[in-house]
Amino acid sequence: MTTAAALEAEYARLTFPRFAEAEAWVLGQKLVELAGSAPIVINIRSADRVFFHAALPGSAPLNDLWARRKSNTALLFQLPSFLVGARNRENGHTLARNGLSEADYADHGGAVPIRVTCVGVVACATVSGLPQAEDHALVVAAMQALLAG
């Protein structure tokens, strides 16, 4: 199991110089490319707007619900959903401790906030359809590729 400390260090390296519609499109395309034939849903959104969405072959409507719940968590905490879950597991807590409903929030891996230097969190990239560690790793790999230029 990945530790909260390892996830914190990983997320600290994922800061963008800028992020707008063009970058969302490039990130979404990179996620599609890296996904290969994986049956996943990809969603990149802010709190009030979807920038990119793809339901790849073999994904299911349930993946959309998971993506929404995980991205809600990442946007609210401004941390990767996998990190929120790791912290909760390490401390014996749940999202309910914060008054959050499982119908709207999930602390499973796959949603990573998109943070911009000197601005903060502006959006969230989410993958749903694989085991949570793989969902998370796919988002991180795509973000790293975009940052590497």
UniProtKB/TrEMBL annotation:
Gene3D superfamilies per UniProt? Haem-degrading domain
Where does the record place a coiled coil?
none
Q: Which Pfam families match?
A: HbpS-like
UniProt name for this protein: Heme-degrading domain-containing protein
Originating species = Cypionkella sinensis
Taxonomic placement: Bacteria, Pseudomonadati, Pseudomonadota, Alphaproteobacteria, Rhodobacterales
